[in-house]
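Hey, sorry to bother you again with one of my protein questions. A protein chain has come my way and I'm curious about its shape. I'm sending you its amino acid sequence along with the backbone structure tokens. I owe you a coffee for this, so here goes:
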Amino acid sequence: MTFRLDGATELKEQLDKLRASTAKAALQRAGLKALQPMADLARSLAPEKTGELAQSIAVGAQAKNDEVGRLAYRFVMGGGGTREQAVTAMRQARREEKGRRGAYYVDLYMGPRAGRSRDEVIKGIVQEFGSFRVEPHPYMRPAFEQDKDALMQRLSDEVRAEVAKAISRAAARAARRKT
């Protein structure tokens, strides 16, 4: 997939008018709203044997830098380090990862939520890709293929709207403080 991004400089200028946490929250809200129709499409394409897979498809945000932290923790513990050293390494790895991503980085996901058991997670993967016993019944990739262009337009519209709302709320707060 290729796409063209216009207006990144202007967007950064608008985001710079906000506190970093406010800007990230605006981007996160925009992304979650933009992904919802794709999730609905994936639900409609999911196999309907029990309906559990379709019900498990969700849109959300999660911090990916936790993976980096867990790897650092395991590396120190596996090398014979103490728990205190491992926790320090984990925190440092998370800080470094956060610094590399920049102030406005947001992680979003859309897909089946992890089940309570390993088997439930594997079922979703097998439905999408198949196995040596089961034919694949893709639902995520077709949803992406059908909705990717519309998603980019929704994302553009939602980011523009959310950032504008956040800027106007910040200006209103600043005006209230002055009076």
